[in-house]
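Quick start: what a row looks like.
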Amino acid sequence: MGARGRVLASVAALAAVLVGCAADAGADATPRGTSASPTSPTSPAPTTGSAATPTPEGTLVVADFGSDTVTFVDPRHGEIGSFEVGTAPYGLAVGADGRAWVATAEGVAVVDTRTRTRLALVPYETDSGPAETGEYRGGGMGIALSPDGRRAYVGVNVPGGNGTLEVIDTASREVTATVDVGRRPFDVDVARDGSEVYVTDHDSFDVTVVRADSLSPRRIEVAPYGTEGGLGSWLKPHYAVVRPSDGRLLLPFEGERLVVVDPRTGRSEIEPMTADTHQHGATITPDGTLLVVGTGPIDPSEDEGPSLTVRAPDGTERVYPLDGPHEDVAVSKDGRTAYVTGGFTRDGYWDGITVVDLPSGETTRLAAGTRPLGIAVL
C-alpha cells in the first residue's frame, strides 16, 4: 500500500495530531500589537520605502508572510527594498497598470510597484477576526484580478467557518460585493474571458465557481482521495491554474494525481503525476506548461522530498529537487527561469527564493524577504 493509502487508512488517528494543512483552528495565530494602520480606500498611505528610481522590469515582488511587508528583489543580485503593507501578507496579483493588490490579514493593500509605495489599504467587509499572524489567521489569502483590471477578487478566510469572496472595484478601491464560498480559500483564479472566478477552498475539498456577472456561486467537489478525515486530512486542494487551451482547471495532488476540472459541467478527470510529494503552489505559462511546487513528504519513508515539477502540455514531466520546503512559484517572461518562494505555510520555511534554470534544472538560492509566500514577476 502506498503512502496515500496508508494515510487514508489511518487518518482518523492522525487527525488529532496533524497540523499545518491539517487543522482549521488558529492554534499558532499570534495577536499583533501594532501593524500598518488602514487608510481610507481612496487616501494614499505614507510613502514608506518610496523608490528613488523606477522599479525595473523583471523585478520580483514577494508577500512577506512572516512580517508586515512586501519585498522587491533583483533576481540576480537580491533585495532592492521592503516596506509595510499590512499584517501577514499572503497572496498578491499585479495588474498591467503596475499596481499590486496584496491580501493581508486586515485588508487588501494597493501598491504602486513602479515607485514601491503603498497607496491604500482596503478593509474587508467580512468579519474575519483580529488581524493576526500564523498559518490559520483570518483575512485575505488567494487573490486575482479580472482580465480588464477593473476588479480584484480576494478569498477571505474566517477561522472556524466558511470564507467569502470579496469583490473590489479597483478604481474606487471599495468592496462592492461579497459571496459565500468554502473553508480557507487558498487560491483565487479567473477565467481567461473574465466570466467566472474560481475559489479553491482548501478545508472543504472543493472549488467554488462564481459567475462574474450575477455573482451566483456553485460548488464543485475536488477530492481525488475522498474526504475522509475532514479537517484532519492532508489530501485537500491547495492551488489551481486555468489551462489556456480550454479553460479547464488543473489541481495537483501529492505528486500523484492531477485533477482536471471542467468548470462548466463540474466533471473531473484524473491524470497521473510523478513527483510523489505533497504539493502546494502552481502556475501555468501561456503555452500550457504547468509548474507545481512540492513541499515535501507526508511519509518520509516512502514519499519524495521538496521539488519543482515542470509538466509539458503533453503530460511529460521533469522533476527538479529543491533544498527545503517552498510554497509558490512564478516564471520569467521568457519562460526560462522559475522563482520558488521559501516561505511555506508550515514549519520548515526559510527567508528566500530558489531560482531554477528550467532548461538545465540548475538551482540557486537567493535570500529575499521574510517567509515569502506569494510572488510575481513585474
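That is the whole record. Residues 46 and 118 are 7 Å apart (CA to CA). The helical segments are 3-14.
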